[in-house]
Design goal:
By secondary structure, the chain is of the alpha/beta class. Helices cover about 30% and strands about 25% of the residues. The chain has two domains: about 90-255, TIM Barrel; about 260-374, Beta Barrel (Lyase, Ornithine Decarboxylase, Chain A, domain 1), CATH 2.40.37.10. Strands 1, 12, 13, 14, 15, 16, 17 and 18 form an eight-stranded mixed sheet that branches. An eight-stranded parallel sheet has the order 4-3-2-11-10-8-6-5.
């Protein structure tokens, strides 16, 4: 929560729920990543928050961009990025989208199987490809599934296949899980990447790059490591596993870049009890379908601030839609002031990432989450 956001909400008084993002925080985050990992290129994960003002700021600062679609590529280009500062980092792409990206000058593509390599070879001949390997995601609040990546041994075959198809077998990527609070989580994946580099070198293929992915945490209710702590642990692991033959590296911060820069303003629309117990139900005008999808399984617990100062009591927190899954916190009720009333406003912190992009377009007729970038 910054004074700029507080003053904006006081002066503008936007109607309805909204996200407010402070670009000064984004700027500070970028510069901290740059200081913590000066030898790594920063590829901002556009999917976290593609607001044009954020992309333009990062482009001006020199950031590159990790894009998941042609639409995101166009957003990055419109913000001022050049094609060599963009990677098509989604391992699941339509071949015509690969061709469209290639026509825009994009030359760096993620793959994780031979079939994806074949698409890139046909639609973007001569392009650079990096193969994503699986990670267990231990230590992450939002561990990623096996939807992306392959076993490290298979990555060797994928990259050999890319080389034989006329592509540049460029490197290896991985993702240690979103909101990863263990700075040493990168060690095991870097060990696997180094093994792949050595094996392919023996076979005459010299890889150049390791994509360290995202995973850098933002602060919610618990303390997290700073960028410097991440940087020291990761750089130590790179030197340990690669020795004197250090690869080029890139990082893809999304949540860590914009998460703590945003606050959602929401209104209490109902306070009720369903039984003669102590648990109250508090309904807000935002929920899982209005930007808070990451409360699924209560994985992310956002800090919530009220102007009320009464005793905090456990509350089930739910959204406004006619869907029974639209409940954010029930297994572990959220402490909110006992004197909270209908019409009160709450401020939900740490919501700069994965809120506007997760919000539904018109479920139950509700409009998408409004966004202000200041």
């Amino acid at each position: 929560m910054t004074d700029r956001i507080v003053n904006f909400l006081k002066s503008v008084r936007p109607d309805g729920p909204c996200l407010v993002v402070d670009t000064e925080v984004v700027r500070d985050n970028y510069l901290r990543f740059q200081r913590a990992m000066p030898d790594s290129r920063i590829f901002y994960a556009v999917k976290a928050n593609p607001a044009p003002q954020i992309l333009a700021l990062l482009a001006e600062l020199g950031s590159s961009f990790d894009c998941a679609s042609v639409q995101e590529i166009d957003m990055a280009l419109a913000a001022g990025a050049t094609a060599e500062r963009i990677s098509f980092g989604n391992t699941i792409k339509r071949e015509r989208d690969v061709a469209a990206a290639h026509a825009r000058g994009i030359a760096l593509f993620a793959v994780d199987c031979e079939a994806e390599v074949d698409k890139v070879a046909r639609a973007a001949p001569g392009a650079k490809v990096f193969c994503r390997i699986l990670c267990d995601g231990e230590g992450a609040e939002w561990a990623l599934s096996k939807k992306f990546g392959c076993e490290p041994q298979m990555a060797i075959e994928v990259l050999e296949h890319a080389h034989a198809a006329g592509l540049v077998a460029y490197g290896v990527s991985f993702h240690v899980g979103s909101q990863q609070k263990n700075p040493r989580a990168w060690d095991g994946a870097l060990a696997s990447a180094a093994d792949i580099f050595r094996t392919l070198s023996y076979r005459g293929i010299e890889l150049k790059m390791v994509n360290l992915g995202g995973g850098f945490a933002t602060r919610y209710l618990e303390d997290i490591p700073g960028e410097g702590e991440y940087g020291r642990a990761i750089n130590e692991a790179i030197r340990s596993h690669f020795g004197n033959r250090l690869p080029a590296t890139i990082i893809e911060p999304g949540r860590g870049m914009v998460g703590n820069a945003g606050v959602i303003k929401t209104e209490v629309i109902l306070v009720s009890q369903k039984a003669k117990d102590d648990i109250r139900w508090v309904y807000l005008d935002v929920g899982k379908f209005n930007g808070l999808a990451e409360t699924m399984d209560e994985a992310i617990r956002y800090p919530i601030r009220s102007s009320r100062e009464g005793e905090a009591v456990p509350c089930v927190l739910a959204g406004p839609t006619c869907d029974s899954v639209d409940v954010m916190y029930e297994r572990t009720p959220y402490p909110l002031p006992i004197n909270l009333e209908i019409g009160d406003e709450l401020l939900i912190g740490g919501t700069g990432a994965y809120t506007t992009t997760y919000a539904s377009v018109a479920f139950n007729g509700f409009p998408p989450l409004a966004s202000y970038v200041i």
